[in-house]
Amino acid sequence: MRRRLLTVLMVLMGAATLLLSLPLAGSYADGRTEHLLLQRRSEAVRFAELADRMRTDADRTELSTEIRRYAELYGARVTVVDTTGRAVARAGPSTSSSSDPAADESLQRALTGRSTERLPTIRPWGPDTVVLAEPVGRDERVSGAVLLTVPTEAARHDVTVRWSLIAAGALAAFSAAALVAVGITRWLMRPVRDLDRAVEGLASGSLTTRAVSDTGPPELRSLRQHFNTMAEAMADSIGRQRDFVADASHQLRNPLATLVLQLENVEPHLSPGLGRTEHARALDEAERLEELLDGLLALARVESGSAEPAEQDVSQAVRERVVAWTPVFRKAGVELAASAVQDDLRARALPDAVGRILDALLDNAAKFVPSGGHVEVRAVLRDGEAAVRVADDGPGVPEEQLPLLLRRFARAPEHQNVPGSGLGLAIADELARLSGGRLGVSGNAPHGLAVELRLPSC
User: Fold this and answer.
1) Strand 335-341 relative to strand 374-382: parallel, antiparallel, unpaired?
2) What is the pLDDT of residues 203-230, one digit of tens each?
């Protein structure tokens, strides 16, 4: 946005500079042309008066002498013609034999008693010469015309110098305006960037992030204050919610543990039959409730953690967890293998996040992969990220249910009787998110489930 705003301001200032400098340059060129016309026209009038008074050879000699001196001084060509267009006197450099339409038109106007009133606008690139004509005599007594072909080198030099000054001034003004635009853009965008960083921090789970910039327009400063007030209220609400979950889970664990102990103590006093069966069901539900409370307490601790991501040795964490879980899988009749673990694979994550996430993924596989199945763990660098993949060849999950697996308490209908709280993958997903990564779930060909952890590599 900063670049777009700066671009818009620069375009507007460039357009304003051009709209001011171009008319100024054009006005000076028109003025210099008008000055040249007035200057040379007065001299043409003087020559016309001399030609009009020409009666004798002495008058002709005087006229020739005047136009010759003028031609030598200014490098112009002066031609005096009669009413038929025949040259009576001429001086100055010769011109090409080809006729000049502008000169012919000026001459015809002069022979009808009209003076040249306008010249082509002189610019640095031309024209090299201009032609003006003045009638000899007036009204019905026009006896000829004076034709001046005037070089414009001096006028073009003046226009070039003045245009260069105008261009330099325009460039200096544009540069100064650009510096002002950069300052204004920074002043406007600093609080916006600060708010963007604060929103990004809140979205990543850092509830202590606040907008701190106190610059910019009053509207943006007011927005910063309202944002910080909203962030405080949201952090307070989420904090109370997490505290409630943690406190409730912790407070319920003690009476629940007592209840489980009492149920276990009652069991020897029950006679075989329906009562013992119902007692076993009640004990299973109590133990399941205990697991649920443990999961809620673990999730609340993860969400309320204040640790910052740091560099982790992913390769070592994967190998350690695979070694630790191998006896569990061997006992269940499932093969666990780390087929591809890249050496020295590092990533940024919360402390021990890789190990805790792997524990959740392997625990999930141990519950749902039947005896004789296979579980494969891979850890490689992919697309600039550390990718840890746990894939199995178990029954898997229907495709439409895959997005539900990372939700809290999510369990497939056919797995309702499998031990667990339904919070394992949700806790792993929260750990991955707080570490700056993500957890993805997909099917494994030809059947089974694949869960992949992606973390920013170091």
Assistant:
1) parallel
2) 776 778 888 888 888 888 888 888 888 8
